[in-house]
Amino acid sequence: MEQKEYLFGKTLNELKQACKELALPAFTAKQIADWLYKKDIKSIDEMSNLSKKARVLLNDRYEFGISSHISVQKSNDGTKKYLFKTPSGKFIESAYIPDKNRNTLCVSSQVGCKMACTFCMTGRQKFHGDLSAASIVNQVRSLPEWQKISNIVYMGMGEPMDNLDEVLKSLEILTSDWGMAMSPRRINVSTIGVIPSVKRFLDESQAHLAISMHSPFEDERAELMPVEKAYPLKSIIDLVREYDWHGQRRVSFEYIIFDGLNHSTKHANELGRLLDGLKCRINLIRFHQIPDSNLKSSNNKEVEKFMDLLNAKGIRTTIRASRGQDIDAACGLLSTKKILETRNEN
Q1: Torsion on CA atoms 290, 293, 294, 296, rounded to nearest 10
Q2: Is residue 54 located within the same domain as residue 197?
Q3: Could you tell me the residue range of the domain that residue 48 belongs to?
Q4: 35 vs 226: CA distance, rounded Å
Q5: Which has the closest alpha carbon to 206: 163, 244, 237, 179?
Q6: Do the beta carbons of residue 56 and residue 31 sit within 8 Å?
Q7: Residues classed as catalytic
Q8: pLDDT > 80? residue 306
C-alpha cells in the first residue's frame, strides 16, 4: 500500500494547493494550518470546523503527520533529551532545556553530519540524510511541552546550512502568523560557516546566527574542524561584517573550551583582533566529554579567567550553563547509543 503524504510540514501555500486539488474552499487552507500548528490535536478528524466532506477527502489522501519520540531521558536539572526515529529508520535527538525565564528546545537538522568535527559524536556517525522541514518542526510540535517552548536553537545533530532549503522552510512554519507565530528573535541557528548558505540565510531569514569558532587560529581550528580549510574563519567574519548587527538581530560565536588548548592570553588577543569593531558576543561552552577523545574539559576557574580576558577587550562574553550532564547531554550521544543497540539486536 502506498504511503500517504503528510499534511504536517506543509506551508500555507502548499496547503492552498492541496485544497485546490481536492476542490475545497480556499479558506480551508488557513483552517488546516491553525489545526496543524496552533492547536493540540493529532488527527484530521479532530479538525472540527472543517466539513465532514473535507475531512473525508483529506483522510483519503493525507496523514496528519506528527510522530512521537521513542524515548526520553530526564536530567536532575529538568533537561530532557528526546530520541526520534526518522521515516528512513534512522535516529535523531532534541533537547528540552527549561529555565526560570525561558524554555529552550535544541533541534536537529540532519541525520548524522558531514563536517567531522573532532569534538562531536554526531560527526562520528557520518552523514545519513537531511531532515525535512516536517521532521524538524515535528521535534517541536510533538513534545508534551510544545506550547511552553519560548526559544529554539538549531544546535542539535547536523549542519543547518548544509540543509538550508528545509531549514528555511521550517523557519517559515515556526515564525509565520499562519504557523506557530514565534518571533525569529527567539530562534538561533548555528553553523560551522558554510559561507554561500550563511549569506543566503542572512538575506532570507531574520533569525539569529551563531558561528562555531572554537579557536581564532587557522591551523588550530582546522585540527578541530576540517571545514576551516574550505571556509576559513576570517572569510566568515568578513561576510558577517557586511551586515548590520545594531538592531535586534544578533550574531554570536560559540567557543568550546578545551583544557590547555584554546584559552590562553594569546587566544584572547587574537579574538580581540579578529572581532574588533564587530557587534557580537562570544558564548563560552564547557566541553562535554565524549568517548575515545583526547580532548578534555577545562575547570571552571580557567573558563572564568578566559571570559574575563575577553570582556576586558570589550567583547561581550558569557559562559553557557552546562545542563543535563547526568544524561547523554552531548550532541549525538543518545542517538549513537541507540544505533549501537540496534546493530547488536540485529
Answers
A1: -10
A2: no
A3: 5-63
A4: 44
A5: 244
A6: no
A7: 93, 331
A8: yes
